[in-house]
Amino acid sequence: MYSTVKTAVLSGIEAIPVCVEVDISTGMPVFDMVGNITSEVREAKERVKTALHNYNVILPAKRVTINLSPADVRKNGTGFDIPIAVAILKALGIINCDIDEYMFVGELNLSGDVLPVKGILPIVFDETQSGRSKKFVVPWKNYNEAKLVPDAQIIGIKTLGDLIAILNGDKLPDIVEPACESKKDHLHYPDFKDVNGQQLLKRACETAASGMHNILLVGPPGAGKTMIAERMPSILPPLTEDEKLEVSKVYSVCGLLDNENVLLDNRPFRSPHYSVTQTALIGGGLKIMPGEISLAHKGVLFLDELVEFKGGIIDLLRAPMEDGHIRLSRGNRSITYPADFLLFAAMNPCNCGYYPDMQRCRCTEPTLRRYFERISQPMLDRIDICVEAAAVKFDQIIDNSKNETSEQIRCRVMTCHEIQKERYKNENFSYNSGITNDKLKYYCFLGKKELSYMENMYDRLGLTARTYHKILRVARTIADMENEDNIHVRHLNEAICYRSINEKFWGSCNK
To answer: Partners of 432 in the beta sheet?
Structure first.
């Protein structure tokens, strides 16, 4: 007796098709599972046998062999319980319908109840897009998540008994009408209208949002760095449909996607504490799960107290910041997760928080040097905008005049994004921050006056090639904010101002 059932396993946020083969033949009574499986998959043997027994399905005293192919793909997770059970039931003749067009995913407990699993959305989406399957049998608590994929026919099951009855035509599958999207609570971020003063910081944030540039604020405690960072997502454009799907896939893999009838529609805002581990920040672990940088995909990653992060952990962000993804390896396994985020970092100017105000700063020169050396120059070079957050004055705190709202700023940012998307419609990047070095001469063309100005600034400020390219990208964004086709000296000058903080803090301690 032989049968096969279709299922899938996740590699990152991509689904790899898996075929569950069951052969029941004469021989010594044994239950074998093969196919490059982890311990949690191997434990499915006991869960499935007990669940079947509790539904009066007794395995014959024969040799039962289960193979999960292809054998060169590592199988992990608990979603193989249902396909293994279905394959056994088919081989025994208890299920008599044609199941070739179905794909099965789900976990069983010992009583035969079907439990939800992580990663249903990417599995259903990839299998539907590839045309391998259109019909899916999933846990009831994953039903709404699976229904997010258009054209997929979803059957949600609560128990093993429901599964047998539905496949044999003895029971119709339960139908859940999708909830109205308006019923979902949308996340509302704080508004910039509540921020008094700090015009330079607001301008820098708008520039960062307009070109999707990474930004660093350096200033004393109480200057409003965290308050402004929390408002950054409120001026970013809404997620596109493709971006919603990408973000939702990551959250599905982590088991953080609510069983709702709508995709995540808010840009993520992740703010890990500086005690975060390497695995929690960039991902990894035994199962190679996504980290904070992947959960911040298409959103904002806020790193407060930047210099307090454990030594070396910040430098791990350098590759993802340029590539937009993170590649994690463990043994002979390698998984790629998306990590295209806008980095918003903040830090105090020194240990006591008051440098360069030497009337209040208690730090010695060696202390300052050690403090600033915690952030490497290669990391600084990858941050496009560095701004000093000055202390807020009393008259600014009590100012009752109306400030610009996040919606007003957001409208200008969206206009700037439309300009860039039209300009880069034939490129593999969409924003100024992503302009590749070989395209800078074309998209960030400088006239003779501008080129002469930058040549002078390059030698005068001791810029690196990477910093020079960052200035050009930021200047391109500032020109777009003014709806200018060409980059002028004033745009370059403002972009350079967003780098001058390096000399004031890091440069002064290296002299």
So the answer is: none
- Strand order of the β-sheet with 385-388 is 269-270, 300-303, 342-347, 215-218, 385-388
For residue 44, the surrounding DSSP H or E stretch is: helix 44-53
How far apart CA 51 and CA 474 sit, in angstroms, is: 61
The per-residue DSSP string of 241-263 comes to: HHHHHHHHHHHHHTT-S-S-SS-
- 118 Cβ contact partners less than 8 Å away, ≥ 6 residues apart: 77, 252, 253, 254, 255
CA 123 to CA 252: how far, in whole Å? 10
* DSSP code, position 399: -
Reduced to 3 states, what is the DSSP secondary structure of residue 387? strand
Over the stretch 222-268, which tens digit does the pLDDT of each residue have?
888 999 999 999 999 999 999 999 999 999 999 998 767 678 888 99
Q: What tens digit of pLDDT does each residue of 12-46 get?
A: 999 999 999 999 988 888 889 999 999 989 999 99
> What is d(CA 98, CA 270) in angstroms, rounded to the nearest whole number?
46
Q: Give the pTM.
A: 0.90
The answer to whether 257 touches 248, Cβ cutoff 8 Å, is yes
Residue partners of 263: CB distance under 8 A and separation at least 6 = 148, 241, 244, 245, 247, 248
Q: What is the identity of the amino acid at 265?
A: D
Phi-psi region of 240 (alpha: psi -120 to 50; beta: other; left: phi over 0): beta
**Which secondary structure element, helix H or strand E, spans residue 138, and what is its range?**
strand 135-139
**Residue 129: Cβ within 10 Å count:** 12
CA-to-CA dists, residue 311 to 65, 164, 219, angstroms? 50, 55, 21
Q: Which amino acid is at 393?
A: K
Residue 163 half-sphere exposure toward CB, CA atoms < 13 A: 35
For 413-455, give the DSSP string: HHHHHHHHHHHTTTSS--SGGG--GGGHHHHT---HHHHHHHH
Only one residue has tokens 């971020």, namely 189
Q: Which residue has the tokens 């969206």?
A: 414
Distance between CA atoms of residues 434 and 211, nearest Å: 9
Helix (H) or strand (E) holding 130: helix 120-130
- What tens digit of pLDDT does each residue of 95-114 get? 888 888 999 999 999 999 99
Nearest to 136 by CA among 113, 85, 170, 102: 102
Beta strands in 289-445 (DSSP E): 289-290, 300-303, 325-330, 333-338, 342-347, 385-388
